[in-house]
């Protein structure tokens, strides 16, 4: 577990170690089957896998990168003007989401297991069944790592979490735990998932009111609450930017007074949270059909 956080070279060596990832997955599968999700060794295994999934898209060996990302490179070469936000512009993101997803191997080995649906379902199972905060946080964090990029693999993982494995209810429950870093990681995962336009209606229907409930009624004071609040605002921004329906959902969940309060942070106008809330308000105002409802 300590070695897996030793940086890029350490991660590379451990990913290449024959049988290591397979053994970790095998052990966790055993404890879940035995209804022992709070086992300390399971926590260690999940934390290792969490660390080994960090920056996975960037650090994939060339052989995987060629087979998985060939579609992405074709897409990128066809788009000479990606817009003012570089490769993260909406047009490029939509094109990437339209490209065929990489086919899953029925019997993944080694590094292939890190993004396979089997392990994704294991993480979701641990989120639902474990009561160990470190196990919950590491499972959420691994999914956050795997959905952090803009290519086919992160999108395939996001679609598995939301649509194939029905993971949103378990993630939603983590928004209401008292442990601040578990909550923060759950929100960060939802922020990644919400960047995918084809998943936004599912996410809004399932968790938008819960995201609003996470927002504080006053300006957040601690750093971790400030970061969590900023992440919630950016997630809500993603969900409402292109959907008047989702903006109305936010309105009916009494989100507007909270967002206005957070945006008017007199003590530090440049705090992460107040900045994010201001961006969200600006976006919400673009739905002209809701102006009268906003004014009320």
From TrEMBL:
GO BP annotations listed: cell-cell adhesion; desmosome organization; heart development; intermediate filament bundle assembly; protein localization to plasma membrane
Species of the source: Pterocles burchelli
Entry protein name: PKP2 protein
Compositionally skewed regions (Basic and acidic residues) per UniProt: 94-107
Keyword annotations: Cell adhesion, Cell junction, Repeat
Matching Gene3D superfamilies: Leucine-rich Repeat Variant
CC annotations in GO: adherens junction; cytoplasm; intercalated disc; nucleus; plasma membrane
Pfam families: Arm
UniProt similarity note: Belongs to the beta-catenin family.
SUPFAM superfamilies attached to this UniProt entry: ARM repeat
């Amino acid at each position: 577990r300590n070695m897996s956080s030793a940086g890029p070279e350490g991660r590379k060596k451990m990913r290449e170690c024959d049988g290591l990832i397979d053994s970790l997955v095998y052990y966790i599968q055993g404890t879940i089957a035995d209804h022992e999700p709070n086992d300390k060794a399971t926590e260690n295994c999940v934390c290792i896998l969490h660390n080994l999934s960090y920056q996975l898209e960037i650090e994939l060996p060339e052989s995987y990168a060629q087979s998985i990302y060939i579609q992405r490179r074709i897409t990128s070469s066809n788009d000479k003007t990606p817009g003012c936000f570089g490769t993260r512009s909406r047009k490029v993101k939509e094109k990437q989401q339209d490209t065929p997803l990489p086919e899953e191997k029925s019997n993944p080995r080694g590094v292939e297991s890190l993004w396979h649906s089997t392990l994704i379902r294991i993480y979701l199972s641990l989120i639902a069944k474990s009561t160990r905060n470190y196990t919950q946080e590491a499972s959420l964090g691994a999914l956050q790592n795997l959905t952090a990029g803009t290519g086919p693999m992160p999108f395939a993982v996001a679609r598995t979490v939301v649509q194939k494995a029905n993971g949103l209810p378990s993630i939603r429950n983590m928004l209401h735990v008292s442990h601040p870093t578990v909550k923060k990681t759950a929100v960060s995962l939802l922020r990644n998932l919400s960047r995918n336009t084809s998943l936004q209606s599912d996410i809004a229907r399932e968790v938008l009111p819960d995201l609003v409930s996470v927002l504080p009624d006053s300006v957040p004071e601690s750093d971790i609450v400030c970061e969590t609040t900023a992440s919630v605002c950016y997630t809500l921004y993603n969900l409402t930017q292109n959907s008047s329906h989702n903006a109305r959902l936010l309105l009916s969940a009494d989100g507007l007074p909270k967002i206005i309060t957070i945006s008017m942070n007199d003590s530090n106008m440049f705090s992460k949270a107040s900045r994010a809330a201001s961006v969200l308000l600006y976006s919400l105002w673009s739905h002209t059909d809701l102006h009268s409802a906003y004014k009320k």
